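Structure ticket #2291
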Amino acid sequence: MSIATVWWLMAGAAVGVELVTGTFYLLMIALGFAAGALAAHAGIGLAMQIVAAAVVGGGAVAAWHVQRERKPAELPAGANRDVNLDVGETVHVDAWDADGTATVRYRGAQWSVLAHPGAPPSPGAHRVREVVGNRLVVEKI
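Resolution: structure written out below.
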């Protein structure tokens, strides 16, 4: 068995383990193994094959890590409009109770609302910022 075949088998094994575990970083390591296989096909010596695999695999892992760090943190599900379509909708609060809650009619039902922390409760139009359990957290528009 040639050394290139060993590299390809390691790349395939890394992809297989990634499919079982869901660790995306293993795909980057598999890219490194593929680079080692291509270096072996090119007739480069074993030491340089290992260097090629390490540089490509390690570089891909580092690049993916940096890319993920630059991405802004995702909102929790209750505040994410992609998950909860109530976020961003408007409701009208007529009056607030003494405990800082109110009841509004929204989507054909009565909902309990809370003022967004740090915002004083005041009547009028409000935008839903988050859904916590069965309560809407709102901010004044």
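Closing remark: Residues 15 and 75 are 30 Å apart (CA to CA).
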